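TASK: fixed-backbone design
INPUT:
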């Protein structure tokens, strides 16, 4: 038996048309998660700059956006599970915060004379926007969680 047959077989790396190494895991899914997270960051900065909120909420939105940028880069480049966990947790926390703003900020769950108990009826356009934001945040969390599940299944 030849000495070469006892050695570990070497995996040949497949390459793309441009000659770069082909990725071993999912490519579009992490890029989509990163793009959705980046869009959320840009939306926070745009809302902060627009002046519709006070100085304190605007500063908080810029801080949140700045905190999300490193995770976005890590997800785009390497599909890091820790970054995906942080994005999923942050998205669920933001959905909960916006739900509190939508349902409990002004009405406090108490009503008199047949008026709605929440602030949802006070500004229908603002309520619709908050519902869209909540939906985007939950979709971001779901995308990140499904990517974590795919990566775990691939690395078993």
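OUTPUT:
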């Amino acid at each position: 038996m030849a000495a070469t047959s006892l050695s570990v077989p070497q995996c040949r790396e497949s390459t793309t048309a441009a000659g770069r190494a082909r990725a071993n895991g999912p490519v579009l899914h992490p890029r989509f998660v990163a793009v959705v997270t980046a869009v959320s960051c840009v939306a926070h900065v745009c809302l902060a700059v627009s002046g519709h909120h006070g100085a304190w909420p605007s500063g908080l939105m810029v801080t949140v956006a700045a905190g999300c940028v490193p995770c976005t880069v890590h997800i785009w480049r390497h599909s890091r599970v820790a970054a995906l966990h942080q994005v999923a947790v942050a998205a669920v926390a933001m959905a909960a915060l916006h739900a509190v703003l939508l349902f409990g900020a002004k009405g406090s769950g108490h009503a008199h004379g047949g008026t709605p108990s929440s602030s949802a009826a006070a500004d229908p356009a603002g309520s619709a926007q908050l519902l869209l934001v909540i939906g985007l945040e939950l979709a971001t969390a779901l995308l990140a969680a499904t990517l974590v599940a795919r990566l775990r299944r691939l690395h078993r």
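COMMENT: The chain has four helices and no strands.
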